[in-house]
Amino acid sequence: ISGMQSPRKVVLLTSSVPDEGKTTLASNLAFAFAQVKKTLLIEADMRRPKLGAVLGDDGKRPGLAELVAGHTDAGKCIFEIEGSNLHVMLAGSVPRNPLELISSPQFALRMEELKAQYEVIIVDSPPVQLVSDAVMLAQMATSVLFVVRADSTPYPVARHALSRLHRVDAPVMGVVLNQIDLEKADNYYGEYS
User: How far apart are CA 123 and CA 46, in angstroms?
Assistant: First the structure.
């Protein structure tokens, strides 16, 4: 990813709506960075956590919610994926009001502590259209990658979500077109593809 020269980076992945592939993309990006930098993958989608299932973890360990609430320390929330250098913090127990937790001073403090320990932090956040969590998280990120599912997400929906991010000066680095059908695109564009 261009623009990753800074020693401390927080890259947030979000989308307009659910099921655009941001959790899978966040995982893959984190694994790639973990090959060369000390990397932490944080599941900040505390409303519909699914990173544990993607990584083959039962998701029953303490996580981000417990860390921010002060119920435990980072060492008990973070685990290393076997056979890699990737560290992961799952969402933990689903709080009553995730936005309240994310917008708290304790959340900002914990993020600063984590930024001091890791070279790259990849944050898997909720979609922008459904809740304000991603908008709040984007303001704490160094870069935002916006994920759009090809042939699925309506253009006005994606545009509205991006405008919400721009209104808070989120550092949107780019858009990832995900799950594109290359065979269909080849048939459509023919010799121009």
Answer: 12
